[in-house]
């Protein structure tokens, strides 16, 4: 993002050291973003781009929200869990008809039940 010179302070080469009007917490978030900040930025950028393409390229408009409200963040503790997570990612689009977020859901996704239980158990483990 290009910022007018009047709103930035920096070294003689023009690199900003501090942003005028920016809190230290926000400046630190730019340097060391959390997973949540990265996911939030990704969702924001892609939503804006999708909306632009809806109007410019006649993409299908979305109802209410493009993204689900949250995401799962979890530690993969062993090879079995890694394999199951990879399988989940690869087959996720194919399971949309069974997804609990799908308002027209036609069944139950057994893998989603396993993943939910596994994540709950992992949070209880030391």
Low-confidence stretches: 3-9, 18-23
Task: Name the helicity range.
Answer: 40-55%
Biggest sheet character: 2 strands, antiparallel
Give the total of domains: 3
Our measurement of the CA-to-CA distance between the termini, rounded to an integer number of angstroms, reads 42 Å
Instruction: Give me the Rg, rounded.
Output: 21 Å
Q: Tally the helices.
A: 4
Task: Please state roughly what percent of the residues sit in beta strands, choosing from under 5%, 5-15%, 15-25%, 25-35%, 35-45% or over 45%.
Answer: 5-15%
- Give the strand order of the largest sheet, numbering strands 1, 2, ... along the chain: 1-2
Mean pLDDT: 77
Q: Give the overall silhouette.
A: globular
- SSE string, helix = H, strand = E? EEHHHH
The total beta strand count reads 2
Helix-strand category: mainly alpha
Keywords:
4 helices, globular, mainly alpha, 3 domains, disordered N terminus, 126 residues
Brief summary:
The chain is mostly helical. It is 47% helix and 6% strand.
Overall description:
With 126 residues, the protein is mainly α. The chain has three domains: 32 residues, no CATH class; 37 residues; 55 residues, no CATH class. The protein is built from four helices and two strands, in the order E-E-H-H-H-H. A two-stranded antiparallel sheet has the order 1-2. A hairpin with a 5-residue loop joins strand 1 and strand 2. It starts with 7 loop residues before the first strand and ends with a helix.
Write the layout of secondary structure elements.
Layout: E1 8-10, E2 16-19, H1 24-31, H2 35-57, H3 79-91, H4 110-124
Antiparallel strand pairs: 1-2
């Amino acid at each position: 993002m290009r910022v007018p010179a009047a709103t930035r302070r920096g070294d003689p080469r023009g690199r900003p050291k501090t942003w005028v009007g920016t809190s230290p917490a926000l400046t630190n978030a730019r340097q060391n973003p959390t997973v949540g900040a990265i996911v939030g930025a990704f969702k924001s950028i892609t939503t804006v781009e999708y909306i632009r393409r809806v109007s410019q390229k006649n993409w299908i408009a979305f109802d209410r929200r493009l993204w689900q409200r949250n995401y799962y963040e979890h530690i993969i503790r062993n090879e079995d869990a890694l394999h199951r997570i990879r399988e989940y990612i690869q087959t996720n689009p194919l399971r949309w008809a069974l997804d609990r977020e799908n308002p027209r859901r036609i069944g139950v996704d057994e893998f989603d039940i396993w993943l939910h239980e596994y994540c709950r158990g992992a949070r209880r483990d030391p």
